[in-house]
Write a structure and sequence with these properties.
48% of the residues lie in helices and 15% in strands. The chain has 322 residues and is an alpha/beta fold. Helix 1 (23-39) links the parallel strand 1 and strand 2 (48-53).
Length: 322
């Protein structure tokens, strides 16, 4: 164990979006965990919990304000408008790196087992700069989510992205790792793909996931699709190469159809063949539309990157630190 890392300052970053039903109970559990870790002298008494309000439309920010007034361990960051889960996590980490030795990010519903935090800290004390949280299983997910998540990770690995299967945004990052992450200024964020690219010493901690006790998941199907698209287009050009391969295949099919038409004409079957023509129109039309869609994704994301707009803007910050 690396003795000079013990009793470091921990900042727990909690992204929140419309979490009024779960927030108070989650804050109580996190505060209790923070106090126990401090009593065990695993972390410094300067450790804090940072709630990042991602432009919530309910009472989430009011609850964070109340928690801040009652507890000196609480800090609050409020976005001017909704910027997404990944930006909320990044904002919390970038803010925290000025004050802490390492951060741990966790979702506001606390479906991830908070008892794994001690194992994260032990791994950090052993010299790791990044500790990835990986789910033990997906038994708490529905059939569709379990299938789609498994398919997503397989596709990402097939595309050449260095990503841990069943990994989550429940992870520890040292200040050194956070400073390295700050050098990545891309707008289309996919932290699960970016962070492994940093290349610092790392390890994995496995944890259990529990059913959500309060409220509903804020990760809709459209948001999951957007995250998947960000991941694939941010780390691979293989879809573009697949489009090129589809073009070659379509060309070969076209040549085959020409041979077929010549054959039918030679043997006098000129009336028949409407089905093959119709089929070729649908196949080629579908291939063209799919190709344009994939290319459009890359062009659109390049457009967003070249504007260099800020990824988020803080409307309000609750902090006792200067």
């Amino acid at each position: 164990m690396n003795s000079d890392r013990q009793k470091g300052i921990l900042y727990i970053v909690v992204p929140c979006y419309n979490e009024e039903e779960a927030l108070e109970a989650s804050a109580t559990k996190l505060l209790d965990k923070l106090h126990k870790l401090t009593q065990k002298e695993l972390i410094s008494n300067k450790s804090r919990i940072v709630f990042v309000d991602d432009g919530s439309k309910d009472r989430t920010w009011e609850i964070i304000q109340e928690l801040y007034k009652k507890n000196e361990e609480i800090k609050g960051l409020r976005f001017a408008h909704n910027r997404g889960h990944q930006n909320a996590i990044l904002a919390g980490m970038m803010y925290s790196r000025k004050y802490c030795d390492y951060t741990i990010t966790i979702d506001a519903d606390l479906q991830q087992d908070i008892d794994a935090i001690e194992r994260f800290i032990d791994a950090y004390n052993d010299g790791n700069e990044i500790v990835y949280g990986v789910r033990n299983s997906r038994n708490t997910d529905g059939i569709f989510k379990k299938f789609s998540a498994t398919l997503f990770y397989k596709i990402m690995q097939l595309m050449g992205c260095d990503i841990y299967e069943n990994s989550a945004d429940y992870r520890l990052m040292s200040t050194k790792a956070l400073n390295a992450l700050a050098e990545y200024d891309e707008v289309n964020l996919f932290l699960r793909g970016i962070i492994p690219n940093i290349g610092l010493q790392s390890t994995v901690v496995h944890f259990d996931v529990f059913p959500r006790m309060q409220g509903k998941s804020k990760y809709s199907l459209s948001k999951m699709f957007t995250l998947a698209a960000d991941g694939i287009t941010s780390f691979s050009i293989k879809p573009i190469r697949m489009v090129f391969a589809m073009g070659i295949l379509a060309l070969l099919v076209g040549v085959g159809m020409i041979i077929h038409i010549i054959y039918e004409h030679y043997f006098g079957y000129t009336v028949s063949g409407w089905s093959s023509i119709l089929m070729s129109i649908w196949v080629l039309g579908g291939a063209i539309l799919l190709s344009l869609g994939i290319i459009g994704e890359y062009v659109g994301r390049n457009y967003l990157e070249t504007k260099h707009r800020p990824r988020y803007f803080f409307w309000e910050i609750l902090s006792r630190d200067k």
